[in-house]
């Protein structure tokens, strides 16, 4: 268990003022809405020269591929508006992104049928894992713009993932590699006390939540 997971577990759950019904049902349990855009990562903000930057696709693919930013931006461009949710309990609604859908990038690749999981590799030394299926929805982007402008360095310039339906640590900033895998393998936070799947509406925050206690557990214990 990491210090971060440990601290978060002990943190008091904030009292969120009641929102209108429509907004309330968009807010996952235990989250607080913010208008700001918190910056969270570990390590130093990397610096790049776009002329040498690239994205490497490897693992369970027929051939490895290297994409430049120019090549990525020549793929079909998608605009999305999504709600995002961080495990540290902030949520932000209606974030606007521009990029290429992961599903559209996949059209360019020869991914082997055995590939069922993906590891996203990012700077500096960051990894996060997802089931391939979770990356195929229409709102999952490799994004280069936020709110109509290029990503700022702190939010992941030049390229980040946006996987809005999972806690935001799955949305790797400074994305550099996509590894297709047969078997699942845990990424950085998944290996430091955080949940492997990370669905905010199911409050899948911590790895200890992966082992659910059956509702009728108490019926099987000794009683008198
Ligand atoms: N490369 C990299 N990406 C990362 C992280 C990181 O430490 N390194 N942190 C993750 C976490 S924990 C969160 S909450 C989001 C925060 O993104 P933001 O700073 O744009 O809000 O980035 C995710 N992506
Ligand atoms: Mo986070």
TrEMBL record:
Location of region: Disordered: 1-23
Listed transmembrane segments: none
Organism domain of life: Bacteria
One Pfam family in the UniProt entry: Oxidored_molyb
SUPFAM superfamilies: Oxidoreductase molybdopterin-binding domain
InterPro entries in UniProt: OxRdtase_Mopterin-bd_dom, OxRdtase_Mopterin-bd_sf
Cited Gene3D superfamilies: Oxidoreductase, molybdopterin-binding domain (3.90.420.10)
Domain (Oxidoreductase molybdopterin-binding): residue spans on this chain: 43-189
PANTHER family reported for this sequence: OXIDOREDUCTASE MOLYBDOPTERIN-BINDING DOMAIN-CONTAINING PROTEIN, PROTEIN-METHIONINE-SULFOXIDE REDUCTASE
Protein name, as recorded: DMSO/TMAO reductase YedYZ molybdopterin-dependent catalytic subunit
């Amino acid at each position: 268990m990491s210090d971060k997971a440990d601290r978060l577990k002990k943190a008091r759950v904030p009292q969120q003022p009641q929102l209108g019904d429509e907004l309330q049902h968009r807010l996952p349990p235990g989250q607080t809405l913010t208008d700001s855009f918190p910056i969270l990562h570990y390590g130093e903000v990397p610096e790049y020269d776009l002329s040498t930057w690239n994205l490497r696709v490897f693992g369970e693919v027929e051939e490895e591929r290297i994409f430049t930013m120019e090549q990525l931006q020549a793929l079909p461009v998608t605009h999305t508006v999504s709600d995002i949710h961080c495990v540290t309990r902030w949520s932000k609604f209606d974030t606007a992104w521009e990029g290429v859908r992961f599903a559209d990038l996949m059209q360019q690749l020869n991914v082997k049928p055995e590939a069922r999981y993906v590891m996203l590799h990012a700077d500096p030394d960051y990894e996060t894992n997802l089931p391939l299926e979770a990356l195929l929805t229409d709102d999952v982007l490799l994004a280069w713009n936020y709110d109509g402008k290029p990503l700022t360095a702190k939010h992941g310039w030049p390229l980040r993932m946006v996987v809005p339906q999972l806690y935001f640590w799955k949305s790797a900033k400074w994305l550099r590699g996509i590894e297709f895998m047969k078997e699942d393998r845990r990424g950085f936070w998944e290996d430091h006390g955080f949940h492997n799947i990370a669905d905010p509406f199911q409050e899948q925050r911590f790895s200890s939540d992966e082992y659910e206690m059956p509702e009728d557990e108490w019926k099987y214990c000794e009683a008198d």
